[in-house]
Amino acid sequence: MFEALKPGQPDPLLALIAAHAADRRADKVDLGVGVYRDAEGRTPVMRAVKAAEHRLAETQETKAYLGPAGNAAFLDAMADLTFGVARPSPERMGALQTPGGTAALRMAAEVVRIADPAARVWLLEPTWPNHPPIFAAAGLSIERIAYAPAPGARPDVAAILDELRDARPGDVVVLQGACHNPTGQDLTGEDWAALAAFLNRRCLVPLIDQAYQGLGDGLDADAAGLRYLAGRVPEMLVTVSCSKNFGLYRERTGGVFVLSEGDGAANAAAAVAREARGMYSMPPDHGAALVAEILNDPDLARTWREELETMRVRLADLRKALAASHPALEPAGTGRGMFALLPINPDGVEALRTRHGIYMPGNGRINIGGLRQETLWQVAEHLGAACL
Ligand code: PMP
C-alpha cells in the first residue's frame, strides 16, 4: 500500500535550516526560522519557566490524566491574560487547552465544521503558511483575499471589507491579533472598529489567532483588538499560543476560546472536547502547568513580564535600526513583533544566501530577532540592495 505513495515535498523552512547549518561561513545570518533569538543568537529557556520547572518537579504529586479540556488553572490564567477586563462571563465562553496554537486552530476549525460544514473560512493573504492546511484538514473550504495592497504594506481595511462582500452569514474570517505573520503589519484601532461593525452587519464569525501577545506593543496593547471585538460580536473564536511569549515552543502549549450566546458556548466546548478525545485524547500538561504556575505566582509573573518586555524591546530596537539603515527597509519600521516581509523576489533571496550567507524563506520574510546590533548595518545594506 505505502510503496505507491509519492515522495513528499521537502518542507522549505526545514531545508533552509539544514542549508544554514551546513554553511561554513563565520558571518552567516539566519533570518529564517520563526523563533525568538537573543543578542547571542540563542532561544533560551526563560528564567521564569526554569524556576517554575524546578517548583513543579518538587511539588507535582501525580501525572494522572486531566481530561480532554486540559489544565483548568492554565485556561483560567490564559483567559485573564488574553481578555483582561474584557473577559467574558463563564456562560458566554467555552475553553479547551490544546497542543500549541496549531492544534487550537485545528480545534477551532473542527467546532466550525461540526456547527456548519458549509461555513467557509476567509484567509487574508499573505498569512502564516500553516493556516490553509489546518482549515483544509478539517474539511472546510477556504477563500483567500488580500490583507494588504503589496507585500509588507499596511493592511487596507476598506479593500478587505470590499473583498468580503461575497461572504455568507456564518462564514469565518481569520485575523491575527498582533505581530502579523509574515508582514509585521497590524490592524489599527480604527480597523478593528470597522471590522466589528461589518462582521456584525453580515453575521460573520471572527477567529482571532493570537500567537505573539506581548511581543508587539505590550501585553495589553497587543490584545486590544480582540478585546474590542469580544465586547461587540455575539460569537467569536480565539486561539492562543504560548510558544513565543513563554518560549515553550516544543512543549506544545495553547488553547482555544469559543464565545457564544445561550447554550452555545457550553455546547461548543463539549463538542471540541469530544473531538479532542478522538484525535489526541488530551493535551500535554507540562507547558500548561508551567504557565499556570507562573501566572498565578506574583514573583514568577513579574519575572516573566520583565523577560518578555526585554524581548519586545530588543525586537522593537532592531526594527527601528533596520528601518533607519536603508531607504528600501523603511516600511519595516511601521511593523510590530518578530517579522517583516521585504520586497525581495526568490532570485534576490537566493543571491543573499549564496553571496552573503543571509538566510530567509523565498517570500522575503525575515525574523527580526535573527539580526544583531553589531552587524546590523552591514546586513541591512545587503538586504536593502536586494529589495525590488
Ligand atoms: N499562528 C501563527 C500566526 C503562528 O505564527 C504560529 C507559529 N509560528 C502559530 C499560530 C502556532 O504556533 P504553535 O503551534 O507553535 O503554538
Automatic annotation (TrEMBL):
Subunit comment: Homodimer.
Pfam families per UniProt: Aminotran_1_2 (PF00155)
Top-level taxon: Bacteria
Family: Belongs to the class-I pyridoxal-phosphate-dependent aminotransferase family.
Recorded coiled-coil stretches: none
Cofactors demanded by this protein: pyridoxal 5'-phosphate
Ranges where the Aminotransferase class I/classII large domain occurs: 27-383
Protein name: Aromatic-amino-acid transaminase
Record NCBIfam families: PRK09257.1 (NF006719)
GO biological processes: L-phenylalanine biosynthetic process from chorismate via phenylpyruvate
MF terms (GO), sorted A to Z: identical protein binding; L-aspartate:2-oxoglutarate aminotransferase activity; L-tyrosine-2-oxoglutarate transaminase activity; pyridoxal phosphate binding
GO CC term (a single one): cytosol
Matching Gene3D superfamilies: Aspartate Aminotransferase, domain 1 (3.90.1150.10), Type I PLP-dependent aspartate aminotransferase-like (Major domain) (3.40.640.10)
Keywords: Aminotransferase, Pyridoxal phosphate, Transferase
CDD domains attached to this UniProt entry: AAT_like
